[in-house]
Design brief:
mainly beta; 6-stranded antiparallel beta sheet; 5-stranded antiparallel beta sheet; 0% helix
């Protein structure tokens, strides 16, 4: 603890006031008026405060005690075993497929519209210049051609078509002169240049909404050969006359839709047939 400073000196006592005169003895008179209290002497000046002693140095802080070691974490309890998965129930048997309904009857063909009136005959145009006389042909046998083709399909095959075009095989009843057929009887090659009459028929067991055509050289549709029914039908046919060059190929096709077509067959019936005859 620091040293305490010395106590300052006590100030001087103030003067005592004068004693009043003693009254005469005798009749006790009225008690005189108490004289005024003498003034309090001046308080002596407070001595100077002694200097504050030097603060003692703070003792060193005691060392912090060692933190106790953390107790070991208790072991995690063992996870209980997962219960077994219940057995999957037996899958119910698939119900039987219902019978396919009968194909509805083909509606009656609409009545043929009234034939329009024949327009007036146009005036006769000027006679054209006579062309150069052609080379005289070989002597014929009565004017009949020996270049002709007939080929059909009588086996009643099922043909799954593609929209881009599916050739119809014609391997049966073949009578071919002046043409060759490929191995599947779907492509026929013309051996002589000339004008040709071509007709075809397609007969299916059920009515279908699909188109048919004649394809030239595997890429070009022969003009006028397309048949595109607006309602389902089982009979399609068409006839054209075209100029062909030796080496051209002809194919009969389904096209325009993806269907399963079953051709008529058996008993000599032709489900599809192609006839080509050279006219000149």
């Amino acid at each position: 603890t620091g040293i305490t400073g010395s106590t300052g000196s006590t100030g001087a006592t103030g003067n005592t006031g004068a004693t009043g005169p003693t009254g005469a003895t005798g009749i006790t008179g009225a008690t005189g008026i108490t004289g005024p209290t003498g003034a309090t002497g001046i308080t002596g000046a407070t001595g100077p405060t002694g200097a504050t002693g030097i603060t003692g140095s703070t003792g060193p802080t005691g060392a912090t005690g060692i933190t106790g070691a953390t107790g070991a974490t208790g072991a995690t309890g063992i996870t209980g075993a997962t219960g077994p998965t219940g057995a999957t129930g037996i899958t119910g048997s698939t119900g039987s497929t219902g019978a396919t309904g009968n194909t509805g009857a083909t509606g009656p063909t609409g009545a043929t519209g009234v034939t329009g009136a024949t327009g007036p005959t146009g005036s006769t145009g000027p006679t054209g210049v006579t062309g150069v006389t052609g080379v005289t042909g070989a002597t014929g046998t009565g004017g009949f051609t020996d270049t002709a083709l007939y080929a059909a399909n009588s086996s009643g095959p099922t043909i799954v078509t593609v929209a881009g075009g599916t050739n119809i095989p014609l391997p049966n009843f073949q009578n071919i002169t002046g043409f060759t057929a490929n191995g599947t009887s779907t492509v026929f090659t013309v051996l002589q240049t000339g004008k040709y009459y071509i007709t075809y028929q397609v007969n299916t067991t059920t009515a279908l909404l699909i188109s048919t055509r004649l394809l030239l050289n595997g890429a070009t549709t022969i003009s006028g050969s397309v048949q595109s029914p607006v309602i389902s039908t089982s009979i399609i046919n068409n006839t054209v006359i075209v100029n062909l060059t030796a080496g051209n190929t002809i194919s009969l096709q389904f096209f325009g839709a993806v269907v399963t077509a079953i051709l008529v067959g058996g008993g000599g019936a032709a489900g599809a047939a192609l006839t080509i005859i050279r006219l000149s």
